[in-house]
Every structure is written in C-alpha cells, then in structure tokens.
C-alpha cells in the first residue's frame, strides 16, 4: 500500500516559477501544516455510540487523514477497530454494526511522533489485570523518551508501535498493573477505591501519570465502564464537553458536537482530567493551568464553524483578513482565496478593502490523500490536481490571492505561475498569518527551521521566490488581537520562537522511538496484550466484512 504521507524536503527550485519545474505529484506540492489528530468520545447508554463516533470523526477529518479508529465498550470488554485511510475508507455500515456498546472513543490521525503505519493508528489498546484501556491523543509529547524510560524497556515497547501515544498508554496500564521496575519510587502505585478487583484503576493511574507528562495532549480514553478526557496544563489543543439527551460527548472541536446533536457545555480545562460514567461527571485537577492555546488553530487548523475559548474561528479569520487589508492594501480588481481555509480571511480582506470577492480556484480537497500512485500523465498535472483555476474569473484581472500561511513556498509559487498562465494581469499574495519561522513541537508537523522559507529569506526575497507582484503577511499583533485573547494566553512559538515549554534536543524528531523499539524488541512485529485477543475476536468479523484490520494479535 502506498502511503499518502508525502513528506517533503525543501527544494527552492521546485515549483513552476522562473527556472523551476512544476511539482510532479500531488504529494510534491507543498503540504499545508498538518495537525496531529482529532479525538472524539461518547458515553451514552441507549445510543448507537459507534455511529455517533463515526460521524464525530467524520466532522474532524480535517485534523488527520492518515488513519482512523473507533473503540467501543459494552461494559465488560473493549473492541478496537482501526486501519489506515480516511474515516469513510476505514468504516462501513457492516463494520460499525459489529461495534456494540455504550462507550466509544474515536480517533483520526496525522502522525507527529512515530511513523504513519497501522501499528501507530489509534485508539491504542492495553490490558491491565483490572481493566483494559483504549486511548486517542491529539497533540505531541515532548518527554517521550523520558516517559519510555519509566517503563523499563522490553515489555512496554514489545510491539511495533513507536508513537508517544503508545508510551503514554503503556504508562497508564503500568500504573494500573502495579508495574515495578523503574516506576518512580517516590510515586507510590496509585490506588482507586472504585476498582472492584483491588488493583489500581485507570482513573487513579491516569492521575498518577499525567503530572509526569510534558507537551501537548488532548486525550480521550476509556476503560470498560468509564469515559475519560484530559488536557495538558497549557491546553495547546482544544477539547470540549457536550451534552446529549442521555449522555455525554467529548471532542476536539465544537463543530463535532453540533454534528452529533450535542449541546456545548464547557471546555476541558488545561490541567484537568474528567471522568464520565454511571456515577456522573467527575473532575480532577492534576496540574495547575498555564493556558497557552495554539494560535495556529485560528489560522488554519480548526474548522471555521468551531468556537475556541468563546471566540468563533470564522469571526477571527474574517477579522484577520480585515487587518491584513489595512496593513497591506493592494490596487486590484478581485480578491480570491486559496480554498478552503483562506476563504474567511479573503472575505474579510474584500470587506475592508472594497475590492470584490470572488472564486478563482476550485479545490479538490482529497487529491493529496489518495492511496493511488498517479500515472505519468496525472503526475504532470502537478498542482492542477489540487487547484483548478476558473479562467473566466481571473483572465485580465489584477488579483489579490489570500492564503493562510507559507511553509516552504512551493504551493504559492505554483499557484502564482498557474494564475499568470491563465491570464491574471497581476498577482498580489496576502497571507493571513505572520511568517512561520520556527518549527512546532506541540502537534503540528511544520518543517524543520532550515526547510521553512521564512526561516532564511526576507519577505522581499520570498516574494521574488514565489514570483508575486507583491507580498504581505498580517502582523503577529494583528493576528493575536483578532482572537480577542491576550497574547499571554496563546502559544505563538512558530511565529516568534517563544516556546511555552522548553523542548530538550534529544526529544525532537518524529522518529525518535523507532531506534529504541528496534533495540529492545526482538519480537517486533508480534503485537502483545492478552485482552487484545478478546478484542480481536469480534473485530475479526468486521475485518472480514470490510477488508480492514482489527486491533490485537
Ligand atoms: S508552535 Fe505554532 S503551531 Fe505549534 S502550538 Fe504553538 S502556535 Fe500552534
């Protein structure tokens, strides 16, 4: 199977600009910044929770397109079904009909730590003597090696999973299994009086482990009877709670609540663990809140119909467009967005400038996610596979083209050249975020600093590189003010290098666990976990129906 990963190395000559060549595959065209996943959880006796999770994930598809999975529990056992691909590729009616229960956890992944392989798809699964555990994670940890060290090596990393999430799941399970070895001696094995077996339960284990975890994590996880949600002290990634008529939902974005008919209740607070079961909703504070929500969620990552910290993403983007027009006016005939994420900012630019707004590019949203290797003829289409220009709209026009960000510059270079090819008289590029000059370690897969075009070139040099008549970025102050949040409550590190949490050099890198697993796991390729066998049993039927693969050995 061909992976849709499409990781790029920065090639300044790539593109259709002067002296450059056209991007050769849909994957070669600059990938936009990619998020580290969407999470969804539901606790609702009487509901078809698998289908609720499916539609919840469907609405969060933009947050991760590499793999998808759903875990369900009927109160006595957990079944996990996951596979590579989009939500609609992984699940069908017959698969969903095998997933029975009243608790579900769903996940769609884009990889940040660990390769894009089936073993790293989520929800992750682990068994303990007292319970089983399925977990979905949005974010990226920055002390993964340190946490893996707590596990004591071989047994904890005996599978082929190499994600920070798998280490975290193993730690939760280890806490609940009274794992000895390197479990911190100053931190006694946690106890949970609610655990019927006498073993510490998942809730107590999570409360013991979460204060040790650094970085970005919006978690949705479950044991057989309880749904949990937890958010890191900075609250880098969003996580919200919603109310159903007879149950509860937790999700990465409020838009997912809307889609499944849940009413927004509140955000999971930074540093909070929430537990939901037949006893009701319990809240634990495991760390003091130090809010630094991701500014890039407003720019690109979140859906426009989502609300973050009380502020509509759509309203923020329109306001950014208005400020962009004030900061970087242009003498032009038409404002067009690079669809879809730039549409709101382009509307704002048009409103503030008085220049008419129009559609000039038609996007095929999923061409970059195809699993089918393009033929040579298709390859030669380059960026045209993703964006097709509307010749009548742009020929002879002086265009303002609004985009949300520039990472390597390849996409903008190709778009400018394509618009000129289709008759645009002038192309003025306006960007609704400041230059991205630093990498992100908190769940967004930006390139390394050396690969970021703004890391080494001035605005004028970038303009020349992409071949635009003019180029303007909204200011950082303008972007922050558009969110209506104080700058002190936002992470903006990719724009100014001011990281809210220090990241050790040896904790950087997407594949930092691969070598660790190879070293400790001579049985790599053999999945572990006794209860996973139970999980596999009924999921196998689903797999047979769909061609997908259940979790377990
Ligand atoms: S570095 Fe940028 S993308 Fe990453 S969390 Fe901070 S603001 Fe968001």
Keywords for this entry:
Rossmann fold, disordered C terminus, disordered N terminus, Glutamine Phosphoribosylpyrophosphate, subunit 1, domain 1, alpha+beta, 553 residues, 6-stranded antiparallel beta sheet, globular
Q: How can the largest sheet be summarized?
A: 8 strands, antiparallel
Q: Find the CATH superfamily of the largest domain.
A: Aminohydrolase, N-terminal nucleophile (Ntn) domain
Number of strands: 24
Rg is: 23 Å
The second-level CATH architecture of the largest domain is 4-Layer Sandwich
Share in β-strands: 15-25%
CATH topology of the largest domain: Glutamine Phosphoribosylpyrophosphate, subunit 1, domain 1
Neighbour order of strands in the largest sheet:
11-9-10-1-4-2-3-24
Morphology call:
globular
Hetero compounds: iron/sulfur cluster
The percent of residues in helical segments reads 25-40%
Break the fold down into its secondary structure elements and pairings.
Blueprint: E1 38-43, H1 49-59, E2 67-73, E3 78-84, H2 87-90, H3 93-96, E4 103-109, E5 124-127, E6 132-138, H4 144-151, H5 164-176, H6 202-209, E7 218-222, E8 227-231, E9 240-244, E10 247-251, H7 254-260, E11 263-267, E12 272-277, E13 280-285, E14 293-294, H8 296-301, E15 307-308, E16 311-312, H9 313-327, E17 334-337, H10 343-353, E18 361-363, H11 376-379, E19 387-389, H12 391-394, E20 398-403, H13 410-421, E21 426-431, H14 453-456, H15 459-466, E22 470-473, H16 476-483, E23 490-491, H17 493-496, H18 514-520, H19 530-546, E24 549-550
Parallel strand pairs: 14-23, 17-20, 20-21, 21-22
Antiparallel strand pairs: 1-4, 1-10, 2-3, 2-4, 3-24, 5-6, 6-7, 7-8, 8-12, 9-10, 9-11, 12-13, 15-16, 18-19
The structure holds iron/sulfur cluster.
């Amino acid at each position: 199977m061909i992976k849709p990963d499409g990781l790029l190395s920065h090639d300044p000559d790539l593109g259709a600009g002067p002296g450059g060549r056209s991007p050769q595959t849909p994957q070669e065209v600059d990938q936009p910044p990619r998020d580290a996943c969407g999470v969804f959880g539901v606790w609702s006796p009487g509901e078809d929770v698998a289908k609720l999770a499916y539609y919840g994930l469907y609405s969060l598809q933009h947050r991760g397109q590499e793999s998808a999975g759903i875990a369900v529990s009927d109160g006595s056992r957990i079944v996990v079904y996951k596979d590579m691909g989009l939500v609609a590729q992984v699940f069908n009616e017959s698969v969903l009909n095998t997933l029975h229960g009243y608790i579900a956890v769903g996940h769609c992944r884009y990889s940040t730590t660990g390769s894009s392989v089936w073993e790293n798809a989520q929800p992750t699964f682990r068994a303990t003597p007292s319970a089983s555990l399925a977990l979905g994670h949005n974010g990226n940890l920055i002390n993964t090696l340190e946490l893996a060290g707590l596990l004591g090596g071989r047994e904890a990393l005996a599978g082929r999973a190499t994600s920070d999430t798998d280490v975290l799941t193993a730690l939760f399970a280890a806490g609940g299994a009274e794992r000895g070895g390197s479990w911190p001696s100053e931190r006694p094995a946690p106890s949970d009086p609610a655990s019927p077996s006498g073993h510490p339960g998942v809730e107590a284990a999570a409360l013991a482990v979460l204060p040790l975890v650094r970085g970005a994590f919006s978690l949705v996880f479950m044991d057989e009877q309880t749904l949990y949600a937890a958010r890191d002290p900075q609250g880098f990634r969003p996580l919200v709670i919603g109310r159903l008529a007879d149950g509860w939902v937790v999700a990465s974005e409020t838009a997912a609540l809307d889609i499944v008919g849940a009413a927004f209740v509140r955000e999971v607070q930074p540093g909070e663990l929430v537990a939901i079961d037949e006893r009701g909703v319990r809240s634990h504070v495991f760390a003091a809140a130090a809010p630094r929500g991701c500014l890039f969620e407003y720019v690109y990552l979140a859906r426009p119909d989502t609300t973050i910290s009380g502020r509509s993403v759509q309203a923020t983007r329109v306001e950014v467009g208005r400020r962009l027009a004030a900061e970087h006016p242009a003498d032009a005939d038409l404002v067009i967005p690079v669809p879809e994420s730039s549409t709101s900012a382009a509307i704002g630019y048009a409103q503030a400038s008085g220049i008419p707004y129009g559609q000039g590019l038609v996007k095929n949203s999923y061409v970059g996610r195809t699993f089918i290797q393009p033929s040579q003829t298709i390859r030669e289409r380059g960026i045209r596979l993703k964006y097709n220009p509307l010749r009548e709209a742009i020929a002879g026009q002086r265009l303002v083209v609004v985009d949300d960000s520039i990472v390597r510059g390849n996409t903008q270079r190709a778009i400018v050249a394509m618009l000129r090819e289709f008759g645009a008289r002038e192309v003025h590029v306006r960007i609704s975020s400041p230059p991205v000059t630093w990498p992100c370690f908190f769940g967004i897969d930006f390139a390394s600093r050396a690969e970021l075009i703004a890391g080494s070139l001035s605005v004028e040099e970038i303009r020349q590189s992409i071949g635009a008549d003019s180029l303007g970025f909204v200011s950082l102050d303008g972007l922050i003010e558009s969110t209506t949040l104080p700058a002190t409550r936002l992470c903006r590190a990719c724009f100014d290098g001011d990281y809210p949490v220090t990241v050790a050099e040896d904790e950087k890198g997407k594949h930092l666990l691969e070598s660790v697993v190879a070293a400790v796991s001579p049985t790599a390729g053999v999945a572990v976990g006794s209860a996973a066998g139970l999980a596999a049993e009924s999921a196998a039927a689903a797999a047979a129906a769909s061609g997908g693969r259940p979790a377990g050995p």
